[in-house]
Amino acid sequence: MASRPKDFLRRLPKAELHLHLEGTISPETLAELSRRHDAQPLTLDQARALYQYTDFFGFLMAFKAVTERLRTAEDYKLITYKMLQRLAAQGVVHAEAYIAVGLVYYWGRSEFEPIFAAVERAREQAQKDFGISLYWIFDAVRHFGVEPAARVFRKAAAMKDEYPSIVGIGIGGDERNGAAELFRDAYSEARDAGLRLTVHAGEAVGPESIWGALNIGAERLGHALMAIHDPELMHLLSERQVPLEICVTSNVKTGCCARLEDHPVRRYFDEGLMVTLNSDDPTMFGSDLEGEFLLARNEFGFTQEQLRELASNSIEASFLPPEQKVRWLHQIEGTV
């Protein structure tokens, strides 16, 4: 492929809104972490093998294998800086990344505060080095239950005054074992504490999961792949302009979408839904945000002007202050 589309995309300011910190760990970095912590360290080939799976459950098991090797604050600092370095190289000017606080508690790690202080040091250094900004979304694991999730959300509320980069909360994990409605009270408490609300919904479960997310106040929807099966829901999402964090490669690699050509991203866009493109867990799926934009162009026929609109959507759907949004939107408008 000619380099011009890539050059345009790297010049195009954009935000990544659905990105898991732990899903940005490359096999090489995983092998390095294993050397730090495992009695029998993984070889690079063994690390790479962990990233091979055929369904969503297999992906969850791979994610578990990666996160159990994150054991110290320095581990988290390392992966945060590497994540932001890679994002900046793709023309990403702002990211809102999930950090799996629920898994930190699940693994019984030391206190979370030193871990977060380390990722903050990495965030500040990367902002100086690359000019990229980052907000954190504290992520809970829905299939662990309501009380563990509430603990994550309360930690976000308790820390956000000290760390303004903490902007919101979310729930990921197995939708089949953690309906959104179960978290209604916890979400209400988080909203009252000034946190923004996101929900993974309609990734591996039908439209009812998306309705549930909307009913507990979700401001942004992660995936929303299954909305395509409910015309009433499609109309509502378009009418309300609810931002959708679309992750095309992720949906195909986890088997949630059987074939690339079946993915509804094009129809969502054409029917006026507020689509943003995201990479989800880029190193685990062999893609990144630049790759998702190229996929939209090459496989779904998005024009340069439409790619510019997708970039604008990502800024508008972010939790950035209005004045920063306006600045980036002007730059997007002038990118050729």
UniProtKB/TrEMBL annotation:
Pfam families: A_deaminase. It is an enzyme of class 3 (hydrolase). Residues 13-332 form the Adenosine deaminase domain. InterPro entries: A_deaminase_dom, Ado/ade_deaminase, Metal_Hydrolase. Gene3D superfamilies: Metal-dependent hydrolases. Keywords: Hydrolase, Metal-binding, Zinc. Its cofactor is Zn(2+). Its EC number is 3.5.4.4. SUPFAM superfamilies: Metallo-dependent hydrolases. One of its GO terms (molecular function) is deaminase activity. Belongs to the metallo-dependent hydrolases superfamily. Adenosine and AMP deaminases family. PANTHER family: ADENINE DEAMINASE. This is Adenosine deaminase. It comes from Alloacidobacterium dinghuense.
